[in-house]
Design brief:
CATH superfamily of the largest domain in chain A: GAF domain
Number of strands of chain A: 8
CATH topology of the largest domain in chain A: Beta-Lactamase
Oligomer: homodimer
Helix content of chain A: 40-55%
Largest interface: A-B, 59 and 60 residues
Strand order of the largest sheet of chain A: 6-5-4-8-7
Strand content of chain A: 15-25%
Order of helices and strands of chain A: HEHHEEHHEEEHHHEEH
Number of helices of chain A: 9
Structural class of chain A: alpha+beta
Amino acid sequence: MSANENSTTSGPTTLVHAMQILQVTARGGHRGASIDDYLNALSFSRPTLYRLLKGLKQQGFLRPSPIRGRYLLGYELLVLGAQAGNGAGLRDLARPRLLALAQRWGDSFYLFARDGVNAVCLEVQNGAYPVGSFVRATGGRLPLGVGQASIALLAYLGADERNEILSHNAERLIDEYAIAIADIDAEIAHQLKHGYARGVEGSLLPEYSGLAIPILDHSGHPLGAMSCSMLKSRMTEDHKREVLQGMQEEVAAMVNQAHGLLYLD
Amino acid sequence: MSANENSTTSGPTTLVHAMQILQVTARGGHRGASIDDYLNALSFSRPTLYRLLKGLKQQGFLRPSPIRGRYLLGYELLVLGAQAGNGAGLRDLARPRLLALAQRWGDSFYLFARDGVNAVCLEVQNGAYPVGSFVRATGGRLPLGVGQASIALLAYLGADERNEILSHNAERLIDEYAIAIADIDAEIAHQLKHGYARGVEGSLLPEYSGLAIPILDHSGHPLGAMSCSMLKSRMTEDHKREVLQGMQEEVAAMVNQAHGLLYLD
DNA sequence: CGAGTTCATCTCACTAAATGAGACATAGCC
DNA sequence: GGCTATGTCTCATTTAGTGAGATGAACTCG
């Protein structure tokens, strides 16, 4: 027994195994995963696999696929996930505001939160104009550094924490998104100076452009970020000013509401 | 607080315990749950609780609340939940269509799927006109029988299965929603005759009205339902006809697309 | 600033409970 | 009706999670 139970995967093995099963299932997308997928991705025996599958099914974490022998993620995850996305009640506060913005301006608006070294999309509201975006929907996850919302989040973390995150993500950022740390630093400076972020241009999605502003608590810590995305051609100076102002108003109102809610113990 | 003791939740106890922890956390809403919440809702010892909490945290199922000693649902659930909601790829197919409908008509449109004895909301797209609805968002769950989408789903199940569900839900339906089984049966008949459902009127949400149509696979089995909700005053004969036609067109197109996707092994 | 409270971790002995191997049963498929 | 792959069962083994209580760490409040 290694006295070196370290960072990788500790904790009750049943939990770890269950999680691995869910991950394998998720990896299968809407086709789910088959017994063989599990058996050759995982390291435990078949009876054990079936026992866990059964348990996960009973908990609602998995459901049988229409295709025999395949498994899909269960709706309990959806329900819990909906709750999970409402950290600090932010999502409920943001939803109608994102909708209003999208309807008013026709662009697409997003709510993001930090999740470790990633930014996770808590809510999307698409507008009438089509957009491309790194995240397609709620639950999308990006390494911090990608996208304007990332910048807005990073800018208000401590410098040490920020650097840790960025060096952790550096490789992925350059490899998968063609984004250099130096450029991120520059955009963070822009965020801090002007109060909004524009996102770093990588080689991906060159036709789209965006804006983001942070959602800060009373102590200046970022609770999340609101962002928007649009075709670059739509981003005139006027439009940018209008949209930014709209977002700022909505966020200010949200923060006010939040202060009312957060502290009723 | 329901004395909802899980009578036959078998399976690895660690899984069951983990699930209970998640449920308790979820019950706490955006405030999460505290150690005491766990300790007095659950039946295992404190060290065990902490071990599981730690494990769940490492798996991303939980995260620490800003308030020390409280726990929130983790973003991994959100990510998995987003996947889970895309059963058979239906959600991805539906999202842009719901958006188009909402923008065109200004009402609110929903995608539902069956989840055991419940209907679960996979996607919502609100329109410009305000609505009240039983589900507020993705992940909302209703007992089958409530709402127009339920009717559309129930109508295409086998009679035996349907009756089993309805008798299972009967008590909740009458107690919580003031809906009688006989009325549901009548609406199911309407669905089968006219191809769309209107929902059963209970005493709740009397000012709102809705429509729903099923999404059927090639063998007539319901994959889900698309529904809409609007202020009763907006539901003129003309508007109803228009919206129904819009929904039917979108669903038909979805089903076509789905057939293209479902069977590429 | 120090006492008091609550959160979180550690150690250790114990045994319940998960595991693996392989046989058995069942469902779908040609 | 055979064939293949999915799902279940039994049973001995021992891992791996458990409880009790002590200890350490973090925050609170007087």
